[in-house]
Structure formats: C-alpha cells, structure tokens
Amino acid sequence: MKEIGIGIGVLLGLFLAMGVMLFIMFNDIKIQSSYYPIIQLSIIIGTTVICYLLGAYFEKEKLKDELREKNEREEAAKKKREQERLQKIQEELKYQKVFVVHAHLSDSGKPLAIVKRPIYSNEIFCDISNQRWNYCNIERSVGGDLFILDSTLKLLKEDCENWKWYDEEEFLKGELQREKERNQYNEIIQQMEILDKIKIEYLYHMTHKDNLENILKNGLKSYNHVQNNNFSKVNIADDQVQDRRARSEHIYSRSIHDYVPLYFNPKNPMLFRRNNIQNDIVILAIDRNILFKENVIFTDGNAANDITRFFKNTNSLNQLNWDCIWGDYWSGLEDGKRQRMAEALVFPDIPSNRIRKIFCNNASTLQFVESKIKKMPNIKAEVKTNMYFSTQIARTVNTIRINAEDIFGNPKNDKLENEGHYDDLPF
C-alpha cells in the first residue's frame, strides 16, 4: 500500500508541478527562473509524502481489518470446537460405544450379536493390553440389518444399563461352546452332503394303518416296548424273523428289539412278503437327520442275518451296497435280498414330530390317514403307488405259491417263507 502511495505521489507531484509552472507563466508572475526547479521538486516531494502517509494509513487500517477478521474467525472456530466438545461429552454421557465380537442369525432369522464394552480403570495410566471387558447378547428384529463382526456400535446407555452383562470368563466359556457348536454344525453339513450324495431323502418305517393313531400319539416304539405295553393293534412282522432279531448288536450290546427299525428303501422283501395287505400298509417317512443322533446305528443288510455288519459313524455309509438298495430289483444280485433290507436302528424310540410324510397306495387309505393327522400340519399324506408292489405282482406271487406246493409238496408258507423263493422275483 505504501509503495503504491509513493508512485501515486510522484505522478501527482509531476502533474501538480507542471500545473503551477503553467499558472506562473500565463499570469506573468515574476519569479526568478532559478527557483523553478526548487518549486517543482518541492511540489513533487510534498505530494509524494502526502500520498505515502495516506498509503501507510490505509495499509494500517487494512491490517487492522484483517486482524479483526482473523480474531473473529478464531473466536468462531473456538466456539465451534467448544460446542463439539460439549456435544461429544453429552453423547458420551448418553451413548455407549460397544464392539461386535460375534455375529450370527437365529433359526427364526433374527440378527444376533455378542458385544463388549470396556470396564474403565480409575488409574490415569492404564495398560490397554490389560483392559477388562464386559459382554452382552443383543438382537435385532427379524429382517433387520445383520451385525458386522469387529464393527463399532453406538447404543443408548440407558438401554445398555438394563441389559445383562457378564464377564470375560463367562464369555470365553460361551465361546468354547460356540466353537464346539460351529464344529458340530460343520460336521453335520459334511454329513448332510454325504446323505445328498447317496440320495437319502427320508428313512422309512412301514406299519399297519390301524397302528397309526397310537404312533402319532406316542411316537414309534421298539419291538420290546410294544410287546411289553401292548401298543400295537396289528403286527405285520414275521414271527420267525423276529425270533432271529432277538440277538444283540456288537456296538452297544443291546438287543435289536430295543431299537426302532427304519429302512433306507421301503420297497424291499419285507413289503413284498406283505403283498396281500399292501392297501392297509402305510409307510412313514422319517427325518433323515435322525441318523446323526446318539444311539443310532445302521446296517449293511437285514439286521436279523448273521453276516450283517453294524455301523455307528455315518462316514461308513459308503460300506452299504447302494446299487442294490436303490435298484429296480434285488434278484440276480449276489446277497441282494439281505442287502436290500439295510436298516437304520434308533434307540429307544422316535417321537412323532420326526415323521415328515405318510405314504399309502390308494385313496381310501389316504382319506383314513388324513383324518388322523388333521391336528398335525407338519405331517403330509400322499398316495405314492410306485413305493408299493402292484396287484399283478401279488397275483404272480399267489401263482408261484400254488406251483411251489405242487412241485415241492410242502405246506403253503414253508419253503416260500423260510427260503424266500418268491423274494427272488425281479422287482
């Protein structure tokens, strides 16, 4: 500003000096010519000094304005920082920061999380590595946003104080349990993949329809339990076979009669033997996950047979002959009749809530079944004739029975029932 004032002063002094000289000349003012330079220089110096002083003044005022504006900005920033500090204090008093250490979904679809908050020490210098924490379980409503692991949440302290917080020891115990559950879940997923690969959709139990009401009320019971408590109204079992099933298996050393028997494929020699009452037989489809329960074993064939092997680990399912079990027939396959009857044995019973479907082979039986499951919406009933043997097959069997009597001269059901001649038909 002062430099500008000097420049303006010099120019203004030159113009003013020229004006004075012209004024003197035109008015014939008598001044010695030697004074002319002095007059001109004095005017230039004077105007320059005046302009310099004015520039210095305005520069000073400008600096004052800038300083005032700077002070005002600093004051405003200071007030803003103070407001933010007070707001932060209010938020800290009102809100609690917590950290998500575990996140998952409940079976009903609720986002769940375990969060932790610090227990503040009274010490000024606190070793963060020794920071202690409290833990709490929280949830959101079904359909809410999922919690994100390792994220930070800001929650109302008022709400936090009403929650149940627990210490790190309890959290670590729970974490061990959760780790165990995760491992079990992963193991089950692997086992489910095995079942999918083998194409096991259900396990099956066949019974007379007149037993259905009792089963739906009390669940499926073992043979010994049924016999001791008179639960079964109609027994479709083969008495001679049941005698052989009184033996014990080697895994738990229990009688086979202490288990509830299930088949991997119900279209087997057992059902074939009962071809004359197939309209009255219902097939219960049982949740396949029952294979993963404790005290459940399975076999590679009819459990009544001496050469049948027993297994406990589902990884051993590959020991079964699935080509025979799922095949269209068992005749012609070496040891096919026994292997087709591979079983899962469940101790000690199967609750009715494990029943997923009930199959039958005619509309009349379906109507009967539906009347029994009206109050059990989780159980479906369905006619599925391809799970049964046709009437034509039944007539063929009867013909073979007659011919067998003529050929062998044995009483009906002797050679056929014990040696299973007609079980070797290609079905």
Let me know the largest β-sheet.
Answer: 4 strands, antiparallel
Q: How much of the sequence is in beta strands?
A: 15-25%
What topology, given as strand order, has the largest sheet? 3-2-1-4
Number of separate strands: 14
Count of alpha and pi helical runs: 13
Number of domains: 3
Structural features, described:
The protein is an alpha+beta fold and 427 residues long. The protein is 44% helix and 18% strand. It has three domains: 2-90, no CATH class; 95-190, no CATH class; 200-389, no CATH class. The chain has helices at 2-26, 36-94, 157-162, 168-198, 212-218, 223-229, 239-244, 269-273, 322-326, 336-340, 363-372, 391-408, 415-419; strands at residues 95-105, 111-119, 132-139, 152-156, 202-208, 220-221, 260-263, 281-287, 296-299, 310-311, 343-346, 349-350, 355-360, 380-383. The strands form four sheets. It has a four-stranded antiparallel β-sheet. Strand 13, helix 11 and strand 14 (380-383) form a beta-alpha-beta unit. Helix 1 (2-26) runs antiparallel to helix 2. The protein is rod-shaped, with a radius of gyration of 49 Å. 22% of the residues are buried.
Which features characterize this protein?
13 helices; disordered C terminus; four-stranded mixed β-sheet; alpha+beta
Q: What is shown here, in short?
A:
It is built from 13 helices and 14 strands.
Write the layout of secondary structure elements.
Layout lengths: L1 H25 L9 H59 E11 L5 E9 L12 E8 L12 E5 H6 L5 H31 L3 E7 L3 H7 L1 E2 L1 H7 L9 H6 L15 E4 L5 H5 L7 E7 L8 E4 L10 E2 L10 H5 L9 H5 L2 E4 L2 E2 L4 E6 L2 H10 L7 E4 L7 H18 L6 H5 L8
Parallel strand pairs: 13-14
Antiparallel strand pairs: 1-2, 1-4, 2-3, 5-8, 6-12, 7-11, 8-13, 9-10, 9-11
